[in-house]
Design goal:
The protein is α+β, with helices and mostly antiparallel strands. It has helices spanning 93-198, 242-267, 276-288, 292-305, 310-322, 326-339, 348-364, 368-381, 386-400; strands spanning 3-4, 9-12, 16-22, 32-35, 40-44, 47-51, 57-67, 70-77. It is 57% helix and 11% strand. It holds the Pfam family CS.
């Protein structure tokens, strides 16, 4: 039984009330302080302090400080006035119990709202982070595109200059060649005139002079075939990330090897071992004799063969609960509840087991609010179950702080 604290002191002004509650050994990390408009509770086993204020207080402006074995309350009145007494002495036990239940429900609702608000803030922060990252990526992409465009412009400009230089060189060569040919023609004409004067009468006019040069034929045009090394990632070398690409390829190869190995292992099984129902019955026998690890192995194989059977996840959650793998118990029970849809009378028993096992795992992890929600869901399926009623009441008492954990 808890020890009720009666030797507290209090003072008041028109707007505030100051209460000093001596609790031996109280620390900020251990005390459980509950404060609402019409109910205040301090639970520090074995000490318990309860107060039902005469008039409502403003919770948002009120505060509590814990230190040196004393809890100091600074309570703000909703309406400035001087109270004759601190608490309402006309309340009976039923009224007090209703106030307690309302206060606990209000605290739970506020905790749920705070959790939802935190989740919303988290999503907004993630969304903002994603937008910032997308903006940074877009700016980086634009910067890279600008650099590429500048490089292309420089390359085009250099190519144009090269073409112009080549054209000028070719023109100079052509001019030199024309000049050389004209010079040769002029020399040949002079030589012919000289030879014509000195030739003998029997010399044939059709004979060509020995000084005339014979040019080789023009080379034929052809195309050269070039074969480039194939790349998995068609990225320019200056922009590629070889280390990340190699790591990605290694992970893909490992995943393919794992899939092939798993399929080969399943092919090597006997016919009855390929049946998930047979594996489920085998796991039940192993569970009955206390070999929980072997039962988990059998159920794992059954899930690898067919992952759409809720009974496999449900039985594996029971094995994990025995092995104290509480997070795995919660995951398997949640997966079983996902597969047990829609809720119909035929799957009521399975849903009841899933809620009870998940609620038990939550309570073992000291997440009593979530555990109570699962037990209440189980009570909706079987309202007349005395064991469920008793366990749910115990969880409520732990939440309310009337008994120690």
């Amino acid at each position: 039984m808890p020890i009720m604290v009666k030797d507290f002191t209090w003072q008041q002004t028109e707007k505030e009330i100051y209460i000093s509650v001596p609790v031996k050994g109280a620390k900020a990390c251990q005390s459980n302080v509950l404060c609402t408009e019409d109910y205040i509770k301090v639970n520090f086993p074995p000490f318990l302090f309860e107060l039902f204020p005469l008039l409502p207080i403003d919770v948002d402006k009120s505060s509590a400080k814990i230190g040196n074995g004393v809890i100091l309350f600074t309570l703000h009145k909703q309406e400035p006035s001087i109270w004759d007494t601190l608490s309402n002495a006309n309340m009976d036990k039923d009224a007090m119990q209703k106030v307690r239940e309302k206060a606990i429900a209000r605290v739970q609702e506020k905790a749920k709202e705070d959790a939802e608000a935190r989740a919303i803030r988290k999503r907004e922060n993630e969304k903002y982070s994603l937008e910032v990252m997308m903006k940074i990526d877009e700016e980086e992409r634009k910067r890279i595109e600008t650099i590429k465009e500048e490089e292309r412009w420089k390359a085009s400009e250099e190519l144009e200059r090269f073409k112009e230089q080549r054209t000028e060189e070719e023109q100079r060569k052509i001019q030199k060649e024309q000049q050389r040919r004209e010079e040769e023609k002029r020399k040949n004409a002079i030589n012919k005139s000289k030879n014509a004067n000195n030739q003998k009468p029997h010399l044939q006019a059709s004979e060509k002079p020995a000084s005339e040069k014979i040019l080789p034929p023009t080379r034929k045009c052809c195309s050269i075939q070039i074969q480039f090394t194939p790349r998995v990632f068609p990225t320019a070398v200056r922009e590629s990330r070889l280390a990340e690409e190699e790591e990605w390829l290694q992970k893909q190869a490992a995943a393919r090897r794992a899939i092939i190995t798993e399929s080969l292992e399943i092919q090597d099984l006997k016919e009855e071992e390929k049946n998930p129902e047979w594996l489920k019955d085998k796991a039940n026998k192993l569970f009955a004799v206390g070999d929980y690890l072997a039962a988990v192995d059998a159920l794992n194989l059954g899930i690898r063969i067919n992952d759409k059977i809720p009974g496999l996840y449900l039985n594996r959650s029971a094995c994990h609960l025995k092995l104290r793998n509480l997070h795995k118990t919660i995951d398997d029970a949640s997966k079983a509840l996902e597969l047990l849809t829609p809720p119909v009378p035929d799957n009521a028993a399975a849903r009841l087991k899933a809620y009870v096992r998940r609620g038990t795992a939550f309570c073992e992890l000291e997440l009593y609010v979530q555990g109570l929600e699962d037990y209440e869901a189980a009570l909706k399926i079987d309202p007349a179950n005395p064991t469920l009623k008793s366990d749910a009441q115990k969880i409520r008492c732990v939440i309310q702080g009337s008994i120690s954990d």
